[in-house]
Amino acid sequence: MLEKLQQYYSTAKTLLQNTANLADLESFYREHLAPSGKATNWKREIGKVPVEERRAFGQAVNEVTSELLAAFETRRDLLKLKDIAETIAAQATDVTLPGRPLRVGGFHPSTLAVREVSGVFQRMGFMPFESAHVELDRNNFEYLNMPPDHPARDMQDTFYFSEDILLRTHTSSGQIHAMRRFAPEPLRIVLPGLCYRHENITPRSEIQFHQVEGLLIGPNVRMSDLKGVLLQFARQMFGPNQQIRVRGSYFPFTEPSVEVDIRCTLCSGEGCRVCKHTGWLELLGAGMVHPAVLRFGGYDPEKVRGIAFGLGIERLILLRHGIDDIRYIFQNDLRFLRQFGE
Ligand SMILES: [Zn+2]
Fold this sequence. Notes:
By secondary structure, this protein is α+β, with helices and mostly antiparallel strands. The chain has 2 domains: about 1-90, no CATH class; about 110-340, BirA Bifunctional Protein, domain 2 (2-Layer Sandwich). The chain is built from 12 helices and 9 strands. It has helices at about 1-20, 20-35, 40-45, 50-90, 110-125, 135-140, 175-180, 225-240, 290-295, 315-320, 325-330, 335, and strands spanning about 125-130, 135, 165, 185-195, 210-220, 245-250, 255-265, 280-290, 305-310. The strands form 2 sheets. It has a 7-stranded mixed sheet. Bound molecules: zinc ion. Zinc ion binds near residues 264, 272, 274 and 275.
């Protein structure tokens, strides 16, 4: 019997040493050391041996059981440490791996173009001037020589909040704010910003668009200054050999009013589909500031004169990149927007 017990002990010990993880160890415990396990069952054998051997056998059973239990605990501590070490190894950061690329946001194409255009005029000494998007009717229309019944108001369908308050239809409303702040001093400002019109959204028109507008007021300002500034602008934007063409036009706030074209950038003036075979592309509207507007701004039209010009930024983007639908610009489609970089 004692021999069998020794055999069992050595087998059980080997099994214990061979457990590879905590789950194995758990099954070992259930099979051997739990209340109905094999080691525990040896205690029931004690009563079956002859009386004279019983004491020694009982001692041996107790020794085997407690040694197995001690060996079990040692094994458990070891396997726990091994388990922790494995978890750490599995979750460790490999600092030699290449980094994941970070996708950073970029500027909207309109923002980039507004900054570029404003930048050209700022380098010519025009100071940036911004004003509110929500405007009074008189700053947006009346003081720009468009009284309430003026037919030119029909050219600009307007979002009204009330009879007097509206979303500005052009950045020109900022001209009034600037003139009233600085008159009678000479003025040279560039006004960038978002404008709003109550239009149907089509490939050619949107309800919002950016404008960059310029205003220069001083004692000896002439039409030739306007031409010089705009030629310089066209050459900065479209290349040193660019030419401009000035055509008569009509705006209520300028007199005379002109529209300014540049040589078609696609065909260099040869004539193509984009320029409708004229060789020219419409760039912006401009003119000498109307005396009534100067007066509303606080200037004396007998003493100073002004030039003003304004261009639509989205139209410029379409022109430059040969895009035929303005709606792409405001659709927030990242596949489109990402093509403009940073
Ligand atoms: Zn062309």
